[in-house]
Amino acid sequence: MRMKKIALLASGSGSNVENIVRYFAEKKEWEFPLIVSNKADAYVHERAKRLKIPSFTISKAGFEQGEALQLLQQSDIDFIVLAGFLLKIPANLLQAYPDKIINIHPALLPKYGGKGMYGMRVHEAVVAHRETETGITIHYVNENYDEGRIIFQARCEVLPADTPEKVADKVHALEYRHFPKVIEQLFY
Ligand code: GRF
User: Fold this and answer.
1) Residues 127 and 86 in one domain
2) Average pLDDT across the chain, whole number
3) Where among 98, 122, 143 does a domain terminate?
4) Lower CB density within 10 Å: C or N end of the chain?
5) pLDDT value of residue 117
6) 146 lines ligand 1 (CB under 6 A)
7) C-beta 83 within 6 A of ligand 1
8) CB of 19 closer than 6 A to ligand 1?
9) Cβ(15) to ligand 1 under 6 A?
10) Which ligand 1 atom is nearest residue 175's CA?
């Protein structure tokens, strides 16, 4: 039974990070040795404490200078999962982890993706454009925001009366239901 060691990266709340760790809690061949954020005050650090997982803050410059790469390699990380991580992944990580870095985006890429499209901005744009559906996209990470090969998508309807907050709730529900299972199938 080969251990799978996954690094979780998040810039904000980390509800997806917590959901993933809890999903794998009884699956002994899956390990989450560390959580990395680019924000020292990100709530994901609080979640890490509760989950008893070491969490680290590495700045944008730190990522670009290889600090994250060094930390991940020291922890024998096999795969990297971005769950609400807002920095572009530097070439040093892309080269060290080819086809081993995935991201979740709260929309149906290629629509509503790219630089600056994250969080509520995505759902506000979906509502403003009167879309009748939205969803999630899980994709491989490459050198551009939200452009890597798509692995999985799931959809939900957007009703005319839906606010961006209501859409966010529906999308989060899809994330919590599908992201852990996609990780399990992909990296098994
Ligand atoms: C999620 O909506 C995810 O799709 C996007 O960032 C958000 C992260 O939320 N990439 P959380 O930090 O997991 O609560």
Assistant:
1) no
2) 97
3) 98
4) N
5) 94
6) no
7) yes
8) no
9) yes
10) 4
pLDDT value of residue 62 = 98
91 in the same domain as 7: yes
For the CA of 11, the closest atom of ligand 1 is 12
Could you identify the residue written with the tokens 């096999």? 78
| CATH code, domain carrying 83 | 3.40.50.170
Query: Among this protein's residues, is 105 annotated catalytic?
Result: yes
94 and 5 assigned to the same domain: yes
Q: Which residue has its alpha carbon closest to ligand 1 atom 3?
A: 84
* Residues 81, 6 contacting (CB under 8 angstroms): yes
Instruction: Look at residues 67, 98, 129 and tell me which one is the last residue of a structural domain.
Output: 98
Q: How many distinct structural domains can be found in the chain? A: 2
Task: Using pLDDT thresholds of 50, 70 and 90, give the confidence band for residue 168.
Answer: very high
> Do 68 and 36 contact (CB within 8 A), yes or no?
yes
- pTM equals 0.96
Q: Could you tell me which of 60, 3, 11 has the C-alpha nearest to residue 32?
A: 3
Separation of alpha carbons 110 and 157, rounded Å: 18
Residue showing tokens 């149906």: 108
